[in-house]
Amino acid sequence: MDDISVIEINDDADIDKIDVDKIDVDKNDVDKIFTFDDIGDKPHNEMDKVQLKFHQTVKINGDSKYEIDSLCVSDDKKLAYIKYSCSVIDMNNKDKKITLDLDNYGFYCTFNLKGEFILCNEEFVHITFGSHKIIWIYSTQTKNSKWECKRFYRIPEDYELISISKYDNVYLVSNDYIYEWNINTEKSVKIFCNNKDKNKVINIIKLFSTQSSMLNYN
């Protein structure tokens, strides 16, 4: 495997201000499109506009003292969740467990359109250099009940992860800016927001990232 790549943020490619009411949404992903007129005041009232259908149940194990930090489901019914460590279950194969060949601890996970599994965690590197947030990209071609890491990226210091879309767009926040960085093109866009707009945009990005990862499962 090649050395770890660092996400490079281009501060010159920017958008002065984002219109939070005109964020693009893939209409094929949802039965009904959300509206965000009152998202700041009534976040739970929007959920009744999405129609979900019950399919099957899966028992989630793990230490009861830890809560689930992140959960996602792939198109081929692989369930991944983080409860301190990351667990993957094949729902098509009697809930058989799948392991990761590298790190399985994290705080965020998702699947992209190519069927790759994406895990984010914070790795302790060195007593001098401290820890770094890492994005791990795994192939979901199962070999011996295991997924292999294909590549990984280091998130720059002072940047916090908001979410990663199924289109491989990584959303980061730092100070008064939100950054969209694409894993495939390695190009970034900087979006300036005041504090009120920034929080609203972050909530919308998180909402659609969670919604698409769950509703993309049939």
TrEMBL record:
This is Uncharacterized protein. It comes from Rhizophagus irregularis.
